[in-house]
């Protein structure tokens, strides 16, 4: 369902989101729905971190300044660039997996299983009482 904006305040009548201008198309979610989605993701250990491909990053950086595998092969012959790149990619993926596992274990230790309505209400209340959010709403109302 899309947000339904008031033409004067540019605020969604359902979720309270304020658009910068109209027309604005956004999937409407109440604060409670957003809180539930975040808590459910955390409670089920679904924190996913994209793999760090260290070898690919280094190769990309070197090729940006003109150091490519082909040029190195012309100068000194086979240097083992591909094997080194694959090894660094594997190291990066291992580091990423370790961080992801540690993060999910830490979340498992502090978040209740399963998520209760009280958890959702508490997070929704803290989002609604956020001074940053409220300042943004006041600025929008004042036309800043």
What does this structure look like?
The chain is an all-alpha fold. It has a domain at 50-111. Helix content is 60%, strand content 0%. The protein has 6 helices and no strands. It has helices spanning 31-43, 54-64, 69-76, 81-110, 117-128, 131-142. The chain is elongated, with a radius of gyration of 24 Å.
Layout of secondary structure:
Blueprint: H1 31-43, H2 54-64, H3 69-76, H4 81-110, H5 117-128, H6 131-142
Helix pairs in contact: 1-5, 2-4
Helical amount:
55-70%
Strand content: under 5%
Q: List SSEs in N-to-C order.
A: HHHHHH
How would you sum up the global shape?
A: elongated
Low-confidence regions? none
Radius of gyration: 24 Å
User: How does the major sheet shape up?
Assistant: none
How many helices? The count is 6
Number of strands: 0
Whole-number mean pLDDT = 77
Computed structural class? mainly alpha
Give the structure's gist in a few sentences.
The chain has helices spanning 31-43, 54-64, 69-76, 81-110, 117-128, 131-142.
Distinctive features:
mainly alpha, 144 residues, elongated
